[in-house]
Specification:
By secondary structure, this protein is an alpha/beta fold. 35% of the residues lie in helices and 19% in strands.
């Protein structure tokens, strides 16, 4: 990176001089900005959640444009929906391949359990699938995939008439063109901010299909643009291999432009990548919205982003320019990765609780989280014949939440110091309360057909 370019990058994120904060606040009042992270498997989903993603996107076992990612079975995808909903987050389904006519009859049964569980959005490439979903699943938000290569407000408006709520435009648009699309397209706009780039327009490349019979439009791209080629009498080079996109320093401008969702590419990448990249962008977005600067943290995040599966450096993509040799990894197409970040313990949901255990009365435990409250009744406590339960005994037993998704951030206790209740009874009461609380939270997302 040149010294002038490095200096320019250092002044961009979080700089009050660089962006109109009043305008940004006006935009954010209309819609919340969304950080969208990839989840190729359950470990990546947990990493995204821990790092602060608002939404994750994932594929199930059919119809996704990453056929060689880990993906989820249908049962796993339902559980992933419940997990994200438990924490007040969202999950989108990638249904973004072109569907063959003989496969069309499978779509309803494929989507139905996800829709009923509360699927938050579906990313689609096929126009026929858009029409089908709009008719059969009317409450399901449909997003037009970047593989539809939407480049104009006219295209967005046409899709809106078919029931599309959001467009993920072609990644080849400039920032000026993105602004125009937001202003005139009539749909939410989701833009890529980090990850691998295609040499061709997204969704319009047939090179893999022609060379090896593996169609990118069916989720099976073999990556021929990452191969070594010779142009004329010149030497061999990786002439088509794009550097990865890193729009970290463009976040203020993209947010000010009214982009709704900021998407990180990488469903083929490991959870450490998902965690590190998501964390860096989460911190940057929060700083921008709060109008504060932290040059030290920004510097650390930039450094970490360059170490996380970078193809010989990164570029800001097409947001600022049309083309140039600095877009290409001429010497080597593979990823270079430094020391990966350590993954934290899985995220847990804080719970407030109140427990009453008194001799001669039925014990009960009330737990509250995410605006939901449930009460679990336990057995009647007896008057202790020998040693009564102390408050410390009860609290220690109740707080052992183990591998559940919960922990007690506060737990009040009403006990008389004379009661006895088997430890197994206290644990069963806690287990039942937390299970009921989980059902109450995720039940609010479920739909019927």
């Amino acid at each position: 990176m040149s010294r002038d370019r490095a200096s320019r990058r250092e002044t961009r994120v979080g700089s009050a001089d660089h962006m109109n904060m009043d305008k940004l606040k006006a935009v954010s009042n209309d819609s919340l900005f969304e950080l969208l992270s990839p989840a190729g498997n359950e470990a990546c989903l947990k990493a995204a959640l821990s790092a602060g993603a608002d939404v994750a996107y994932a594929g199930a076992d059919r119809f996704g444009a990453r056929a060689y990612a880990g993906n989820f079975t249908r049962e796993e995808f339902v559980r992933a929906l419940d997990t994200m909903h438990l924490f007040g987050r969202k999950l989108y389904l990638t249904l973004n391949t072109l569907i063959k006519e003989k496969e069309a009859g499978q779509l309803y049964d494929f989507v139905k359990p996800f829709y009923q569980t509360g699927l938050d959005g579906v990313i689609v490439q096929d126009l026929g699938v858009i029409r089908f979903l709009s008719r059969e699943f009317p409450e399901l938000p449909i997003h037009a995939s970047t593989q539809m290569s939407v480049t104009t407000a006219y295209g967005a408006r046409q899709l809106g008439r078919l029931g599309v709520k959001r467009v993920v435009p072609a990644r080849e648009l400039s920032l000026k063109e993105v602004r125009s699309l937001v202003r005139e397209g009539g749909l939410e706009v989701e833009c890529f901010i980090h990850g691998a780039m295609c040499y061709s327009y997204s969704g319009l490349c047939l090179m893999s299909s022609f060379l090896g019979g593996r169609s990118g439009n069916r989720g099976r791209c073999a990556g021929p643009c990452r191969q070594n080629y010779r142009a004329g009498s010149g030497g061999d080079a990786y002439l088509l291999s794009m550097k990865d996109l890193c729009a970290y320093d463009l976040l203020p401008e993209l947010m000010e432009a009214g982009v709704r969702s900021f998407k990180i590419e990488g469903r083929m990448k490991p959870p450490e990548y998902v965690y590190g990249v998501t964390r860096a962008y989460r911190r940057a977005m929060d700083r921008i919205l709060e109008g504060r600067e932290n040059p030290e943290e920004e510097g650390r995040d930039r450094t970490e982003l360059t170490k996380l599966y970078s193809r010989q450096g990164a570029s800001e993509g097409y947001y600022g320019r049309r083309n140039g040799p600095e877009f290409i990894t001429m010497d080597r197409p593979g990823y270079v990765s430094g020391e990966l970040p350590s993954l934290p313990e899985p995220k847990k949901l804080p719970v407030r609780g109140f427990c009453r255990i008194r001799a001669g009365e039925e014990a009960y435990l009330s737990v509250t989280a995410s605006g939901r409250e449930v009460t679990q009744r336990g057995p009647a406590a007896e008057k202790a014949k020998n040693r009564a339960l102390t408050a410390e005994d009860i609290l220690r037993c109740l707080k052992q939440c183990g591998d559940t998704e919960f922990y007690f951030e506060s737990l009040d206790l009403d006990t008389d110091g004379a009661a006895f209740l088997p430890v197994s009874g206290i644990k069963e009461m806690r287990r039942g309360a937390l299970e009921s609380l989980k059902e109450a939270i995720i039940g609010g997302y479920q739909r019927s057909l």
